[in-house]
Amino acid sequence: MNAPSVLPARSGARLLVDALLAQGVTRAFGVPGESYLDVLDAMSDSAIEFVICRQEGGAAMMAEASAKLTGRPGVCFVTRGPGATNASAGVHIAQQDSTPMLLFVGQIGRSMRGREAFQEVDYRAVFGTLAKWAVEIDEAARIPEIIARAFRVATQGRPGPVVIALPEDMLSELAHVPDAPVFEPAETWPGLTDMMRLQKLLWAAERPLMILGGSRWNEKAVASVVRFAERFDLPVCVSFRRQMLFPADHDCYAGDVGLSLNPALKARLKASDLVIIAGGRLGEVPSQGYELFGIPDPGVPLVHIHADPDELGRVFQPALAINASSSAFAAALEGVQPPNAIAWHEWRAGAREDYLGWTEQPPANPGAVQMRSLVRWLRGLPRDSVICNGAGNFAIWVHRFHRFRAYGSQLAPTSGSMGYGFPAAIAAKLTRPERTAIAVCGDGDFLMTGQEFATAVQYGVGVVAVVVDNGMYGTIRMHQEREHPTRVFGTELRNPDFAAYARAFGGLGFTVETDAEFVPALDAALASGVPAVVHVKLDPEAITPTTTLTALREKALAERSVG
After folding, report:
1. What are the pLDDT digits (tens) for 259-271?
2. What is the per-residue pLDDT across 285-301, written as a single tens digit (0 to 9) for each?
3. What secondary structure, in 3-state letters, does 29-41 show?
4. Strand runs (DSSP E) across 95-184, as ranges?
5. Under 8 Å CB-to-CB from 153, ≥6 apart: which residues?
6. What is 10-175's CATH topology?
7. Which CATH class is domain 371-562?
8. Looking at the whole model, is its pTM more than 0.90?
9. From CA 435, how far away is CA 388, in angstroms rounded?
10. d(CA 238, CA 226)
């Protein structure tokens, strides 16, 4: 009888890198730190590419964005203390956007705990309510077990971020343990009874409407929903910043249920007699401040499909709750049959006309540069181009007027995090190099993570950042004019020459001060194939597509004088 083979001893760092390789990880984002030097050393001769970033927030956002495109956990490494707290913005985005992500944080040695050692942080306490799971690995021998569990926690049910602290001395500890098997996230499938009840509700409806949102979608699932909408002639809208879940050029598309909701779509939602919410949580923004439907009784038959049973009935009590992942539900739709006679052809056609009327022609804005020129240019890009943005009023033009036509063509944070767009574009280009990646940024928004332009140059990532510069934090200024007209304070910005900024890093920079310069600059930036900034000097009066700063102020003053 042969003697049992003895597993070779491996360090904690080597076990960690091998565990990531075993789960198919090929790229990680991060900022190096002395607290996890052993991991960097183990990674140096592995098949994992380590993308060196310039700030941990940008690195975490890149990991989150890559996960949105692939459905697999994005991986980020940061150092202890300030490195981890810098990365917390990306963790918050992943949590609110239901994105699978693993954040590895270097940690002090185990013998130093509780002494407030250099950069000591209790990560389970700090990230306990911000992440889906926060854990510290105490023994090198448990690394395969915990990493395998982390992948499952991050992807199964409602996806989210997992934070894993790595004590420095644990990483050099030797252990004799095997690698964990490759994981595949478990799918929660809807029951046949659920789908039959859905079919009966549809057959009884006269004004149904579907809302797509959340995560755990893929290209195949989106195609299944499109076929379902075609068979039922069903109007379909999407949740806030989930416009890539249904092609905007399809006759069944009715718009997005987000900020600045189309009044006609809002009225249609309130007039519907069946609302199907697939994948999304119906949180604050898509529910219009939780006022779109009644609480707890929505006032309309509501079908809610979500991968996490705890989300079903959290706020709105559905007539039918289906615990299923988005992709599994989409596949099950193939078995749902339309009635012999569909009663809502005009309802669907009216929803489409409402959408086109709200979005077809961007209005002119004050000043020499017109945002509608950007919208028209974006519409002319290949349908799989990835359009990325962070937070700010500049994004209104993109969300309302651009036509997202393919799955994976949008990267934007439902959490409303500034600084997201440019790191997301870098991640998009690294993850899908064959696609065009454009970041539309505000001036304040861009400088939150603009140092990652150095990362783009270092790795030769041909992304274009369109920086819309109006010299202020525009969204806050808009609210300021509404609430405290004429009392401008804390919102004005003195900005650099963003085109020169790009050139200083080794990229290209273009300045747009007139509308005639807009499209040629965009074309040249995209054609260059290198990282580029198009610095757009927008008139501050162009605060939204439909109003100006002066109009906001005058309206607020008039209302106060009447009051």
Report:
1. 989 999 999 999 9
2. 999 999 999 999 999 99
3. EECCCHHHHHHHH
4. 101-107, 133-136, 161-167, 174-175
5. 132, 133, 160, 162
6. Rossmann fold (3.40.50)
7. alpha beta
8. yes
9. 13
10. 12
